[in-house]
Each structure stands twice: as C-alpha cells, then as structure tokens.
Design brief:
mainly alpha, about 85% helix
Length: about 230
C-alpha cells in the first residue's frame, strides 16, 4: 500500500527545518503528526479495551504508517550532530529503528506500536519548551503527560511483550530503562533548581540582614555624633 502522507513527511520535515532554522519546529511537526495518528486510531478502534490489550500483536495500516514515519524521522535525525551529545537519544533512536523494522518485516504488534507512538504527546510539550513557547506551562505539561501516558502504559506493554515475544520484550525492557534514566535526570534537575533557589533566598536574606545591621550602626553613630556636638 502506498501512503502519500508518509512519502510527503520527510520533505516537509526538511522544509520546516530549512525555513525555521530550528530543529525543534521539525520535531514538533513529527511528534504532533505521529501522536495524532496513533491516538485517533486507538480511540476509533477502541484499542484501549482489555480485549485489545490482550491482542497487542494485531497489525493494521495506521500502525504501519506510524512506524514508517518514525523510522524516517529516526534515520534522518541520526545526521543531526546534536544527537551525539546525548547517549539517551542515540539509544532511543536505535531502539526505534530496530524495533520498527522488525514490526514491519513480520507485520505484527500494531497495537503495541500505536501505544508507543502516542507516547510522543509528551515530546510535543518538550519541543514547545525548547522553543520557549509557554515555557513554564510546557514544562509542567511535559511532566504530567510523561507520567500519565508513558509511565502508565509502558509497564503494561513490557508485560504483554514478555508473554508474546522475547525479542520485543528485550527492546521494550531497554526502552523502559531509558525512561527510568530520564525520570532520574528530571528529578535531579528539579533538586538542583530547588537547592539553587533556596541558596539564593538565603543569600538575599543574609544580605538584607547585613544591610539592616549596617543601617542600625550608621544611625547609632549619627546619634553619638549629634550628642557630642550638643555637649
């Protein structure tokens, strides 16, 4: 089957990147597209039911479309020099390409793929944050969607993969480990920011206290000088 939107994806991605001079606008296009396709399919086909989750190996055209788009994106993004400064992204993209090609070859695990693609909802807000679009709100929404969508569905997908396929289970296990690493990084960053804010507040209070003490000493000296002049 020919998917014209898949054919058009990479040229559009490159055009957006070229005219905006900003990779995150292109990534925003990718994450919005793939998460939109997957969520629409999950809702319309009722893949959120227990019966559907028990048959995650079922394959369909929308899942195939999403996987093709993901493989195109991950493959192209390997040419981005920025990715090589972050080992987590390299592992994530390698998992995406290997897993995607396996699913396409055997034509199974379509529902599993749709759930993994809908995880990109959280990345939409991460891209918005990097673009300084509603930065604080985007950061909070990234955390909320990451925890409510990724961290709730991923354990289920890992368990289902273990029952159905040991190879995909290993891939999912690595992906889960990567998510745990990202969570620990985020917690570490939040702690650093909290400590920095506390330190800044303490420093400001100490400075204010010293200024007050200096003002008190200055007033005392003025009073003493005034008393001496009157005597």
């Amino acid at each position: 089957m020919v998917y014209y939107d898949v054919i058009a994806f990479l040229p559009l991605y490159i055009i957006i990147e070229y005219f905006t001079k900003e990779t995150y606008y292109s990534r925003l296009f990718f994450t919005t597209l793939v998460s939109g396709y997957s969520i629409d399919e999950i809702i319309n086909k009722r893949y959120y039911t227990l019966e559907a989750l028990n048959n995650i190996e079922d394959y369909n055209s929308v899942a195939e479309k999403c996987i093709l788009i993901c493989i195109l994106y991950f493959s192209y993004d390997f040419f981005n020099k920025e990715i090589y400064t972050n080992n987590g992204f390299i592992i994530h993209h390698a998992i995406g390409v290997c897993g995607g090609l396996t699913v396409l070859y055997y034509k199974f695990y379509g529902i599993l793929s749709l759930y993994l693609c809908c995880h990109e909802i959280s990345t939409i807000f991460l891209n918005l944050k990097h673009l300084n679009i509603c930065k604080d709100f985007s950061d909070k929404m990234f955390i909320v969607t990451f925890l409510t969508i990724r961290c709730t569905t991923l354990p289920i997908m890992v368990f289902k993969a273990y029952i159905k396929s040991k190879f995909l289970f290993i891939i999912m296990l690595v992906d889960s480990g990567l998510h745990i690493f990202w969570i620990s990084q985020k917690i570490g960053n939040i702690r650093k920011k909290t400590k920095a804010k506390t330190k800044a507040k303490t420093k400001a209070k100490t400075k204010a206290k010293l200024n007050n003490n200096n003002n008190d000493d200055y007033l005392k000296l003025n009073i003493i000088e005034y008393g001496e002049k009157n005597n």
